[in-house]
Amino acid sequence: MSSKLTAIELLEKNQHFIEKPSKLWIVKVFALAIIFSIGLYALVLQLIEGHIITGMRDNVVWGVYIVNFVFVLGLSYAGALLAGIFHLGRVVWAVPLQRVLKLLTVFTLIIAPFFILLCIGRPERLFNLFIYPRIQSPIIWDVIAIVTDLIFCVVYLYFTYIKDFALLRDRSVDLAMAPWRRKIYTFFALGYQNTEEQRKFLNQALDIMAAIIIPTSIIAYSLLAWLFGMNLKVGWHSSILGPFFVLSAVYSGIAALIIIMWSYRKTEKLENVFTDSHFNILGYALLILSLFYGYFYFSDYVTEWYNLQNTPNMLWEKYFDLSQYGIAFYSSILMVTILPAIIIGIPWFRNVNSIAFTSLLVLIGLWIRRYLMIVPVLETPYLPIHQDIRQDWVLYSATWVEWALTIAGGALFILLFVIASRIAPILPISEMVEKAGESRFVFSFKGKKKLSTEEI
Amino acid sequence: MKEEKDQPQEDSGRRNFLKMSLLAGGATMTGAGLIAAAANGDSSGEKIKVLTTDGKVIEVDKPNGACKINPCDPPNGEEARHGVPGRSFVMVIDLAKCNNARKCIEGCQKGHDLLPDQEWMKVYLMKPNPESDPYWFPKNCFHCDNPPCVKVCPVGATFKRTDNAVLVDADRCIGCKFCVSACPYSARIVNWIDTPNYSGKDPNYSPETSVPSQHGIVGKCDFCVDRSREGKLPYCAGSCPMGVIYYGDRNEDSVTNGEETLRFSQLIKDRAAFRYLEELGTAPNVYYLPPTERIFPYERGLENISEEKRKADLKSISKK
User: Fold this and answer.
1) How does residue A427 score in pLDDT terms, banded at 50, 70 and 90?
2) What is the predicted pLDDT for the residue at B107?
3) The complex's ipTM?
4) Whole-prediction pTM value?
5) Domain check: are B155 and B35 in the same one?
6) Cβ separation A125–B172 shorter than 8 A
7) pLDDT of residue B15
8) Do B154 and A381 touch (CB under 8 A)?
9) Based on the structure, what is the number of domains in chain B?
10) A50 and B216 Cβ atoms separated by less than 8 Å
11) Which range marks the domain in which residue B184 is found?
12) Is residue B316 part of a domain?
């Protein structure tokens, strides 16, 4: 596919990112900016009025914000994990997805912490986290994990841009780029000239970064799971929570990747890069993960159900009761386990659009799953809190402020992608033209014949 | 004082002393506190007799005024994190006596400048099994020896002291609310609404008094250590018309509800006291005496509350 083209040809084929922005693009940015600024207005209101204008109360102290935090962070860790595995595994077909995956990782990693900041009653005191940190607290684990992961992922993303920036710098005259673009590319290319030594050095750096971010993202998302798992709460205090979180993260990450690929196919005509076979392979991954998800979920439930204790029973009754969380519960199970198995599992239903649609269902379903994992659990402590007659203190429902900020987060995510694809190609052009596997294996097998990369 | 009837004679000296000291202060401040007070040098010059832990009667200076623990003023800053030396505050709640008068809630709210919505002390209607009669269950913070809330606090704004109290430093709390979700006893209350009572930063603020509190942070029962310093009972214990709530010092082995003073260890032993959700391993310092031979039928407690609340309470126990 791509390896037949030279870098220059590939760049010229995908050079619309340097063209004057279309009207549609401007409208898109404008619309997203408006949605985002409604969120900003809600944020200002929340800062002035305090958390009383959200739906959070003494029992459900974490609402939609933390659901978004968990969800968005999951996308990020999945992006990093997949990018790392694809890179180290020299997965040839996945090379064109690398840039999208890394952008997904970094953008979500930037957005996610804002959602947890929204949960904090006194954000202006956050510096206390650095003055009086207590390593026993899972929040400090998370702060360390997110900051570490953010640094690694930004560095990794940047490293993968260097070759392309150098290419763009060298082609700036031919492509008739604006001078400011040339300046930016020259600066960020860091004098990369694609010499033998530089290439070797950069490829090694990329391998090392890929190897680092795989365990980092698994650890970081498990730490996030323990933010919940370490509580003495029925529904959270479970050893499966860490692996379950990692699994759902990868699941949601692949779904998000498919949706992003689909959007680029529609908007930037990238059909011959994000090909049908990409959708096919990732669709199968989705199918396998949906079965795994169902298995994890069933294991979690069946052990609880077999010897049902009082408080877990109360929680499960809420999930099953149609007048409480029943509709959300059944529809999310349908969206994350049953429908993917049917739509992708049966060849007759399987095509690019249906796979993209299933991915959307999976994303929505997984968001609802996170909501169900957090809110009903907080509504079900050991004490009979429903003796409190203030209904809104016992049962959580998000206010418009929380929804506005949630949608603003989504708008910001799309906006970042829309802008990023105007700054540099959304495809890792240099990586795509390099013969797959050219970069040296860091982990060579001593005493054994090196695997031939040609055979892959 | 029927618990004391079977005591051996040797103890009578100490018992009399306990009575006397309680007559003076209405609370439980005895030997250890006074010795500590005398050692700190803030004294009135007057001498009084106290009993040491090894059974000797010694003379020490009487502390100034009403102060039972020296210093009388609740400390702030770093000092507030250590606890009153030699103290081990405990509470015993006699479920057989509670009739949901809800005076403990009112007293606590008044004493701690709480909003009507904020109940650091709560009273639940509990029904242990389908056959049993329900009973009223007052519940504050249990000041656990293994507090899940303290474990998860990222900035050490909530801390465990040597005198058993688990307190919140309103100046440091960032309002992440992790402690609220970590507490299995739903003991923590967030200051959701900003009121004029809240300060920005008060130089006299002490985590022991919890007043003035601040907006956007977490508050909770503070075990009224500041009241102990003055020789007074906690607001809840002091306002209870039934004498349900006993408060005292485990090191002195005495608890009082203001009317009677009992030997803590004997009371716990004889009445088969339990701690709520003992199996969680949190090791609370609030003990419950089982609701056996109740003084009032539980229905008496339903008279004090609104129709709506009555319905909610009865509905919640009807399932079991």
Assistant:
1) confident
2) 95
3) 0.87
4) 0.87
5) no
6) yes
7) 44
8) no
9) 2
10) yes
11) 77-301
12) no
